Amino acid sequence: MNYSIPADVPKEMHDVFVKNMDRMTCGSGKLFLFAGDQKVEHLNNDFVGPDVSTDDADPEHLFRIASQSNIGVFAAQLGLIARYAPTYPNVPYLIKLNAKSDLIKTDQKDPYSATWTRVEDVVQFKDQSGLQVVGVGYTIFPGSEFESQMYAEAAEHIFDAHQHGLVSVIWAYPRGKAVTNERDPHLIAGVAGIAASMGADFVKVNPPQRDGKISADLLKETVAAAGNTKVICAGGASTNVKQFLQTLYDQIHIAGCAGNATGRNIHQKSLSDAVNFCNAIYALTVEGKTVDEAMNIYTDQRHDN
To answer: Residue 305's pLDDT is what?
Structure first.
């Protein structure tokens, strides 16, 4: 796979960058990011409840899934990875550099997610642990009164990550009192352009909506605005497996997205179902399988278990 190597990746780090991109996308250029950063973002609301498997109450559930499934990369904060990853060294990891909870609502204060971890800390951790740390991620909230601070931090982190051959992913959510519609297609395209201006390798966005409906056609403007920065979509709240796979297929094959970032739809399931679902998502995203083929992988493996 020929990747677009940013000019801020030093020549001596080109091979490292390509290796990390290859590991994350499994040589396909398409990213299946398994998201575990909700332990902070949504507190325990995503991990305990009547429709959530009891497996999900234990943080190690995330790592068991990542270790036993076909995924591209598992994303979480450094502290959680440091606690559990030594037991699961086969997993490729992406470290989220910032995080905030959802306790403080937008009508109380515009969101600001400050840096927890610097890239140099990630590099030191990677060297000391020997773990497969292949990238870093950072969340920005365009429209917040604090956006300029987050932009400055994110841009610096991306540059530093590239200096060490690490892949960068920006989580980009328009949010704040100035934002009247977080899912506006034109606004989300603009947000993707911000991530591109920062030099991000991937930008994760919520799929845009019009009249309350999601359509892959609405994402075309976002993909165009992102340019060489590849667009991946958030999986959102848990939904029907077939519906999820069809939406993902359309995002890739109609809109031109480069994959997905999925959390709740995976980890709220039991371990066996979560692994089967990951394998179906991987088949569709990375291997180019159809919805029916991916669905067969999910159902056949469930029967085998």
So the answer is: 61
